[in-house]
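Example A, followed by Example B.
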Amino acid sequence: MVRNASQSVVRISDRNPHFLQYKGLEILLITSAEHYGAVINKKFDFIRYLDTLAEYGLNYTRIYPGAIVEPIGYWKAEDMLSPGEDVIVPWARSDVPGYIGGGNKFDLSRWDPEYFDRLDLFLREAEKRDIIVEICFFNCMQKKYWEWSPLHRDANIQSVGECDNVAFQTLDDEALVREQLKYIEKIIVETNGFNNIIYEFVDEPTTVLTPSNKAYAWIERQIETAVETERKLAKKHLLAQQLELGVNFSDDDRIGLVVTQYIGLSWRQVGGIPALDNCYCFDKPIELNETAYVGSWIKETDDLFSITRLEAWEFMIGGGAGFNQLNGFYTVSNPSGENTANRKLLTGLRNLRAFMESFDFVKMTRDTETIKKVSIGANVQMSSEKGRQYAIYMHHSFPVLSGKSYYEPAHGKYQPVLTLMLERGSYAVTFIEPETMNVLRETSVNCDGRAIELDCPSYALDLAIRIVAR
């Protein structure tokens, strides 16, 4: 039996294990979130950031709480994980100068009260807005930013972290592992009172080619620490781990949420539709929690809105529980991410949530059987409660999987015919343009248990279809 969270916190739905539940209601986690540095970047005004998410009906964000710090300018000139001297982490500063990002080194024997005050405030403000926060303890330790971590030997006065970046994600360095586990325990103890949090262990555990068996054992130790820590505390929270080739905790009953990243198989990661195809059978919520980096890899001059829309709509309508678009428009100088491109992106995600919530979605599951044929090439995904309600999404694009993983939109003029095998009955059919939510056509069909053909209206890139029993 899967270890579910306490009743009061975000947890697996009692009615459908593919969805999450919060405050007694099933929820879809849909967002476009900052690059995980909202707490550790001291100058970031996270109130304005959270207000933006709430304004667009977005209810999810993810943070790295301190073990990962990136070099200034690593991904872009102003990046949330690159605060430099303005970094604030769980460990207090010492009196010894020499931290590579500026200021004094860290003292691993002392926690920083200012950091935990900031973390507490962030979680409280998110909770006020019904925003769920995924706390991800570790990310793959790239060689170029290993020395920026407080756990690197040159960044702390204890000289803990004598290993290289690859070994950081193993049990090889005993002194380092002790500090890693103390850090996990401290974060859990300090945040146990919150209902709006999920604990995730390691993002991209083998991307720097850490051997899979060693990374697996390291994550196993973290899970044990989290379970044992919460055993003594009032609340038990949902635990999550990312799926990678060679590192798969989908069948581990302690892990309640399967995390995936990107739209296919890239950098040893399994994400998007391939993850749904391979992991839906575990009867757990699955999320797509990182995508092509908007504002960094994907520029405002690119077909940004189309690129971000395709991956979000297909994953959620295909049976996903959560979607997070990695968004670099949120910065210290622009915490609300205000620009024309971002407004359009956020509106698109609000539209997706509205479309999904127009169904009684908790009764729906991933459906790979009802659509028998599409007359022209298309990417098609579907969820349904057979005989009652069907959600379909189709788009035309090409996956770019080498380097930076995303869809390349193929704009054109499309008017396919779908062959469907619906249950007997009469159905109302609505064709919707996802970009604008404009209704393109409404019709009805009667089914006698045999296959029917559904003529679609003309569209330029993607189409959503709502089929509901009369």
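Example B, a separate protein, is given below in the same form.
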Amino acid sequence: MLNHLVYDKFTNHQYHDFDPQTGEYKVHSENSIFFELDGPYRAMILPSSKEEDKLLKKRYAVFDDDGSLAELKGFEVKRRGELQLIKIFQSQIFEKFLLGATLQECYAAVAQIADQWLDILCSKAETLSDNELVDLIAENRCMSNTLAEYAGQKSTSISTAKRLAEFLGNQMMKDKGLACKFIISAKPIGAPVTERAVPVAIFSAEENVKRTYLRRWLKDSSLVNFDLRSILDWEYYVERLGSVIQKLITIPAAMQRVPNPVPRIRHPDWLLRRVAGSVDKFKQNKVTDFFKMAKDGDDAGLQETQLVDIEDIASASSNGRKRLTVTERTFVRERTPQEESFEDVPLPNPSDDYSAWIQAMRPRWRKMRTAGSSSSSVVPSMFKSVRMRANYRWDILQLRESKTPGRFILWLSINSEIVSVPLRIPREFYIHLEKPDEQLFRTEYYSCTKVTRNLPTDAPCTNLYKTSVKEDVYQDIQEHFLDITNDPNVDSVYELQVYFVRVLLCNSFV
């Protein structure tokens, strides 16, 4: 139906194609818009965000009717450098979502896999060899530039590269593409994760070399146990796995009113409050709970129910009695003979006669629309949305940052009504290159356009690119932008605004 309407209303019947042989234009109809439907599928798995009221985009797993995985997008199992532990865990649990006849049975099957991997970490992998353990938890990163070009920056990869250079030689500082394979240690206690990255290669070094450098890096001169398992930060890896379990299992289960299937993984504080509020019998009801939707099949005419005291509503619902509401109006229109007769007429096949199918469906659609309009609830005018008209006076009351990075709430006063407007402000900056190189940017994550601007201090503008990226995407691929800023082909980087702090570079640049 959508394709039919688009073709009917938006086809260009005067599309001109130039014929170089004749020098004339040929006119024909052109419409390149065509919508397709994927599926139907047996199941679709969507992860939840650990932050309140935030959605994760472009992450899903889709299964065909035969149980095979049709499409997988956005999960850690497809990312390079991710923990092998998490990749194996995700590849095992996806098919488990197809098990069970109820939600509880489904989550119980998935939770069984989660408990198995939690047991491995909580037992310090006593059933695995050191090589198997390293394969599961070691992270692999590749340095795109030399170590000297990352001067002043901090990351687990940079710390690993510096420590490799300490016991393998300073020639490591001069090479690009250095592969960094590291684990996270528990010491120094209280230090950030970037300072607790230990290269895996040290555990294969000579015993005296291993002891010297591990004591130096862990800042513990009294260290006597140099076993890999005694050095690892097991709580860090439990937290890494627990974060994935929250997104895929525990938070979705709580949203579907299923008790926590993996009790060892605690709900976030905001979810605990929401779960406690949903089961609290003393919680305050919403005003909209006092209104009842009119249903099809009610007697024609005006229906009025008995008015009761508002204090009696809670007791009436708790005793299982029908909730008494305020006056409801339901307007029922008598059906015409044509509408009574079409229900018994079989529908034509749209593939054989599309026009006849449209003609037969119109009275059915008309009935559905009429039924939908007559089933609207009686809501006071105080709950109706404000009509935003251009001739109203708009006053900005407040612009504040929300809990989600890059998103803000704009409060307006429109014709004496207070209105909140959600805003999404992307992070924008300009990158000037010495030589054109559009392959430096990853346009699948953000937009990048070559522009011309007046740069500060009258700097020449030859290869200036304007980059606009969503704040959440910027946070996810922040290391990519660090690599860009340290690329030798990057001459300078300009940014107009950082959150609410504006930096005026020059009048013509704004």
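On Example B: Confidence is low (pLDDT under 50) at residues 297-334, 374-388, 499-510.
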